[in-house]
Design goal:
single chain, 189 residues, mainly alpha, two-stranded antiparallel sheet, elongated
């Protein structure tokens, strides 16, 4: 039994002292909180990827870079970790981009880019660059907020993100079934 207990203690020995625990906690909390700020903006605008998604992306990116760096990995070797994070987030962001109609209207580019920025903020926080992470988050919020208003002022045909948030009285689309037009035409009266 003593051998098992010693093995368990050894498995949790990566946090050697209070200083190390504080560094880890601060970096992960900063990553999650800054991801939450970006996610809250997207959630408020009714976008598919919102608060939790951005928090998880930022926290995950912070963990992916924090662990190797705190384990003593050289920064040149950690660059491969950064490349993996960037590529992986690219796939996640691609899932937020949708082609909506026959005309080829594309939706979700801003959400995809906000996911990418949330990952970058997480990496900055995970590397101990919390000030850089905060400045990056402020820049992202400025772009998502102020620049959107400026864009609508310059081009009034640009829809407001709140204009698309009209609730359907029939409930969420996933709970409705609408038959295709050809089926309705053939239906018996």
């Amino acid at each position: 039994m003593d051998r098992i207990w010693a093995t368990i203690l050894q498995e949790f020995s990566d946090v050697s002292d209070l200083t190390e625990a504080t560094i880890i906690c601060v970096r992960l909390m900063v990553a999650a909180l800054l991801g939450a700020l970006i996610g809250f903006d997207r959630e408020r605008k009714g976008k598919a990827a919102g608060l939790r998604t951005h928090m998880m992306v930022s926290l995950g990116a912070a963990l992916f870079i924090l662990v190797p760096l705190r384990s003593g990995m050289d920064i040149s070797d950690a660059s491969r970790v950064l490349q993996g994070i960037t590529a992986g987030i690219g796939f996640l962001g691609a899932g937020a981009i949708l082609k909506h109609d026959q005309r080829g209207a594309i939706k979700g580019l801003t959400t995809a880019s906000s996911i990418w920025v949330a990952a970058a903020v997480g990496v900055a926080a995970g590397m101990g660059r919390e000030s850089t992470a905060v400045l990056g988050t402020l820049a992202a919020l400025f772009i998502l907020g102020a620049m959107a208003r400026l864009e609508r002022r310059i081009d009034p045909t640009v829809p407001s993100s709140s204009a698309s948030k009209v609730a359907d009285p029939r409930g969420p689309a996933s709970q409705r079934f609408v038959s295709p037009p050809e089926d309705r035409d053939r239906a018996d009266p």
